[in-house]
DNA sequence: CCGGTGTATGGCATCCAGTGCCAGGGTAGG
DNA sequence: CCTACCCTGGCACTGGATGCCATACACCGG
């Protein structure tokens, strides 16, 4: 695609007949960065991507939503992950936070320039904050559902702490995205460790997990989770996943 | 200026020659509640208050900002309070949170209907969330300034906990604003007590992280999550995972 | 009393995000 | 081939938001 005038429309097939969402987002991010968010019009994005103005609104909802489109996908992934994790709520919440951080680190091409835009524009800042609030609410509900409704205060505090810890590490990376990812993960581990300590203070009730939930995948969805050392090679990873999937014990 | 209905313009003095801000907010809240937020136009508010459409934008910035106008005043009050409280940072932060809660309880005439509007409208919800984030950031900065900059993580966690506790109590009141305020304050005290306990855990840092533990426990781990329809065949699943892992953007 | 300055206001024109409506084209299913 | 969709694009329109300009009133020195 690239240039100002070049179009993207590729084939006429059902799967990808239109400019891919990611391409649109990347083009929009580029325009926002170069011309400024306000100065960039939806018509400009339409011209740059070959998607009509009307379809942009239909597919993304609003100009801001273009910036956060893939973020929404990440969010729903995390929510489904939580829904499929009945055991060890605090551990699952931390794993979910790890998932979010991973989502950012995964494609700096979008998240880093978005961070710069967000810093410069209060309106976008609010939007970003709203996203983290959605995570926080999801974590809070998840933690509160585990124990009785009576502990919603405690769940809210732990969720807020976890989100704050996550955001702290995330921002440290966003400010210097070229640093060694291992440092980032080390900071993340230290941060979640802090949260675990506070959670111990908050949640002194030892008993939990009154799970009789036969409906972990209520919507007919299944979830596969693999935790592995970062330096695992792709082939090795795939080999182990293949082995694990072959074992019905592993993936409910 | 006199629009359709009764007008307010009172005297011709410098202090209050125009319709008071609070009157405008109250009228707007009434219109929002009766006609719906989206259905209420700035022209309608202008007609109801006797303030021209143009001046409404000048004085409030946007339609949403009318709803949160006095909230901004509360915020700056709290910030000034913090700036004037060099001693006992945690206690001052709790006192500041008390101030915020007090600000809500003080005039339910605005805060309660606003809460209902906020619950119904995602866009307003985001705006409200952004407000609490501003408080959280202010608390965090305040707490971090006290001790060294190194403890910004701890400060952020404590601030988040405090905000979460405050919001928990606040919502409990907003859902039933007629209850005895003493109950609300009792809940607030209990909640801040919880925060103090967690803060003790967080802020006393005896050792921790002198080690460059690059491999401690979860350090350097990655997570792969795949969500898929339950009836996906194993081969199809593996094929898709392989494809995803092959794409560095998807799963590192 | 008068002219100058600063400020808040209102009216007007304009831009542009966002939405409803309808037409066209391509696909799936009979 | 026809029909029932579904996605897309074009068009018109509402309304939030901003810039520009003229006006009214307060303040100040003369």
Number of strands of chain A: 1
Can you write the helix and strand succession of chain A as a string? HHHHHHHHHHEH
What's the total helix number of chain A?
A: 11
Structural class of chain A: mainly alpha
The biggest sheet of chain A, with number of strands, parallel, antiparallel or mixed sense and barrel status, is: none
Largest interface: A-B, 66 and 61 residues
Over the alpha carbons, how many angstroms does the gyration radius of chain A reach? 21 Å
* Share of helical residues of chain A: 55-70%
Query: What are the low-pLDDT stretches of chain A, counting only 5+ consecutive residues below 50?
Result: 1-16, 205-222, 247-252
Mean pLDDT of chain A: 81
Q: First CA to last CA of chain A: what distance? A: 42 Å
- The shape of chain A is globular
Approximate strand percentage of chain A: under 5%
What kind of assembly state do the chains in view correspond to? homodimer
Task: Please explain how this structure is put together.
Two copies of one chain form a homodimer. With 252 residues, the first copy, chain A, is mainly α. The first copy, chain A, contains eleven helices and one strand; from the N terminus they run ααααααααααβα. The first copy, chain A, has helices spanning 21-35, 42-49, 53-60, 63-67, 69-83, 89-106, 108-120, 122-146, 152-175, 181-202, 234-246; one strand spanning 221-229. The longest helix of chain A is centred in the middle third of the chain and has 25 residues, at 122-146. Chain A is globular. At the A-B interface, helix 5, helix 6, helix 8, helix 9 and helix 10 of A face helix 8, helix 9, helix 10, strand 1 and helix 11 of B. Strand 1 (221-229) of chain A pairs antiparallel with strand 1 (221-229) of chain B. The structure holds a DNA duplex (30 and 30 nucleotides).
